[in-house]
């Protein structure tokens, strides 16, 4: 005879397997199941709690506050819930910040990727001193943004004693250049620093892509009479298209979030500690309005508009270049 306990155990097993339970047989209490798996829940609790506390809750709270005048930590209803978003579209500073960050992305991304691919190709067949070269080109990547920004702010001093101006005077006998004060040079100067710091990470990604190209393709190209230059254009670049897509998406997201170098290199432009419009970026606007002026409602609206722009552009990039058939 089958005991009642055996029937219950069998029903529980069948229930977990997704089978239909016999009439009158129920699942074990959910809290009993949680208690049985308490150690598993205990180990996954820290990352879940961290995600809720440091990501989910701030994101939801920022979205909620973007529909209010949340100044000095006080909620005040707006005449129209979307007034903060309308204000951002009317704000000339926000428009200029978007133009600045696109210009910064274009210069730094294409400059760093071209240099990184060139370095990766040169080092791909290297057999000696590999660790030394990896340390050299990756060191700027792991250096603090504050340290790098302060260093290049000193190098790009506008007086005649700045290292950059000394080099320019020695080579071209030119007058001192106001690298970080002249509006048309602010973004290019920061872009050059971004190129210097970003090459190391890109070299690693390009090197991984080069290692994944089958050697048989180069052997076949050599048999067909292709030199190294034709192999690069006919074999290497086509096989690196997925890496290009990956670099483009991450580069655009990272470029649109530019803040560190603008803050450390340009924030001393005036007494307020805020750079002029020529050096402003959307993330800098979020910081300035949210933490300097305590206009967190408007800052949250700017942050979500930037998130929408990132989402739309990323989707377009995947739609245009993310088709796997393009890489066959």
Task: Write up what this structure looks like.
The protein has two domains: 4-83, no CATH class; 86-327, MetI-like (MetI-like fold), CATH 1.10.3720. It has helices spanning 4-16, 30-36, 38-65, 83-90, 92-124, 130-142, 145-155, 163-172, 183-211, 215-223, 228-239, 241-256, 260-266, 282-292, 296-321, and strands spanning 68-71, 74-77. α6 (130-142) packs antiparallel against α9 (183-211). The chain has 15 helices and two strands. A two-stranded antiparallel ribbon has the order 1-2.
Instruction: Assign an overall shape.
Output: globular
Structural class: mainly alpha
Q: Biggest sheet, strands in spatial order? A: 1-2
Q: Which ranges are low-confidence, i.e. pLDDT below 50, for 5 or more consecutive residues? A: 5-19, 21-26
Q: Describe the sheet with the most strands.
A: 2 strands, antiparallel
Please trace the helix and strand order, writing H or E for each element.
Answer: HHHEEHHHHHHHHHHHH
Beta-strand content: under 5%
What is the CATH fold-level name of the largest domain? Answer: MetI-like fold
Question: What is the CATH architecture assignment of the largest domain?
Answer: Orthogonal Bundle
Regarding quaternary structure, what we see is single chain
In total, how many beta strands?
2
Number of DSSP helical runs: 15
Q: CATH homologous superfamily of the largest domain, by name?
A: MetI-like
Global mean pLDDT: 81
Task: Count structural domains.
Answer: 2
| Share of helical residues | over 70%
CATH class of the largest domain: Mainly Alpha
**Termini gap:** 64 Å
What radius of gyration results from the CA coordinates? 28 Å
């Amino acid at each position: 005879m089958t005991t009642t306990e055996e029937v219950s155990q069998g029903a529980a097993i069948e229930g977990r397997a997704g089978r239909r339970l016999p009439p009158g047989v129920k699942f074990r209490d959910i809290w009993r199941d949680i208690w049985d798996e308490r150690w598993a829940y205990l180990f996954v609790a820290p990352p879940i709690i961290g995600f809720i506390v440091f990501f989910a809750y701030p994101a939801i709270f920022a979205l909620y506050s973007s529909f209010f005048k949340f100044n000095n930590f006080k909620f005040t209803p707006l005449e129209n819930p979307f007034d903060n978003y309308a204000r951002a579209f009317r704000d000339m500073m926000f428009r200029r910040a978007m133009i600045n960050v696109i210009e910064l992305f274009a210069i730094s991304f294409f400059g760093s990727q071209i240099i990184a691919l060139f370095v990766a190709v040169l080092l791909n067949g290297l057999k000696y001193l590999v660790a030394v070269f990896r340390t050299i080109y990756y060191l700027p990547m792991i250096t603090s943004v504050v340290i790098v920004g302060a260093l290049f702010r000193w190098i790009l001093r506008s007086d005649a004693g700045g290292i950059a101006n000394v080099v320019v005077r020695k080579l071209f006998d030119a007058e001192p250049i106001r690298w970080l004060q002249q509006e048309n040079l602010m973004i290019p100067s920061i872009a050059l620093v971004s190129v210097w710091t970003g090459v190391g990470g890109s070299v690693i990604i390009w090197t991984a892509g080069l290692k994944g190209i089958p050697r048989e393709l180069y052997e076949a190209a050599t048999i067909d009479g292709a030199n190294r230059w034709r192999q690069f254009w006919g074999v290497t670049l086509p096989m690196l298209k997925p890496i290009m897509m990956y670099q483009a998406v991450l580069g655009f997201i990272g470029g649109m979030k530019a803040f560190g170098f603008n803050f450390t290199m340009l924030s001393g432009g005036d007494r307020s500690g805020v750079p002029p419009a020529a050096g402003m970026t959307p993330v800098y606007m979020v910081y300035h309005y949210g933490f300097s002026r305590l206009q967190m409602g408007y800052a949250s609206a700017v942050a979500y508009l930037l998130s929408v722009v990132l989402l739309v552009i990323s989707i377009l990039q995947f739609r245009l270049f993310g088709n796997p058939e393009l890489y066959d």
